[in-house]
Amino acid sequence: MRVLNGWIVCALALGCLAAPVPAADDLAAVFARMDQAAPTFKGLRADIKKVAHTAVINEDTTDIGTIIVKVPKPHDFHMLIDLREPDKKIVSISGTLVEMYYPKANEVQVYNVGKGHKAEMEQFMRLGFGSNSKEMRDAYTVTYGGPETVAGQKATRIVLVPKSADLVAMYPKFELWISDATGISIQQKIYEQGGNYTVATYPNMKIDPNIPDSAVKLNLPKGVTRRPL
């Protein structure tokens, strides 16, 4: 799953007038919004800004593009990330299959995590995208982070620590910013061992239940080279 690295947000005003609400109650409110959104979630479209931080050189790199997510039925997850700046590349994820297309090289790198890791793959990719509170609590220890504004939306940050030893060995912590309006994640932060992290923000998000299959598939030119990883 490491090849996916890089790949997948009013309480303050009220605080002046009333006693603080316990964090457990605030977290329950986030879970309630997620559980309301999950049963009907079929897909979304959004812009994406992905910032990758490399700790050893204290440097950030930024990619800009679009993302489309399609979940036609439970356990059937598809995603297309089209990064346009600074260098064009497109990532398609369908089940356990990951395809990364680099137009300049006219090459597609192909990686399949295998059926044995399908559950972990789905768990990783659905972070905040239609997952419900039970699925999240089964896979992570979740704590309340607090209210924030992200991409112009009021959101609530939550902190997730994986229960899976294999996953936590690679990614010790995640942060999600769950939109107060939609119950869907509008920002995700993925921490790696060694201090590296990636922040993905999704401005202009639109929930779309009618995304066609073609929208989440690579449209490749003739003669492209496929290279298994």
Can you give a write-up of this model?
The protein is α+β, with helices and mostly antiparallel strands. The chain has a single domain (2-16, 25-210), classed as Clam (outer membrane lipoprotein receptor (LolB), chain A). The protein is 18% helix and 44% strand. It contains 5 helices and 13 strands. It has helices at 11-15, 23-37, 118-125, 133-139, 165-170, and strands at residues 43-54, 59-73, 76-85, 89-94, 97-102, 107-112, 140-150, 153-162, 173-179, 185-191, 197-201, 206-207, 225-228. Strands 1, 2, 3, 4, 5, 6, 7, 8, 9, 10, 11, 12 and 13 form a 13-stranded mixed beta sheet that branches. A hairpin with a 4-residue loop joins strand 1 (43-54) and strand 2 (59-73). The termini are close together.
The CATH class, by name, is Mainly Beta
Total strand segments: 13
User: Which whole number gives the mean pLDDT?
Assistant: 86
What is the second-level CATH architecture? Clam
Number of DSSP helical runs: 5
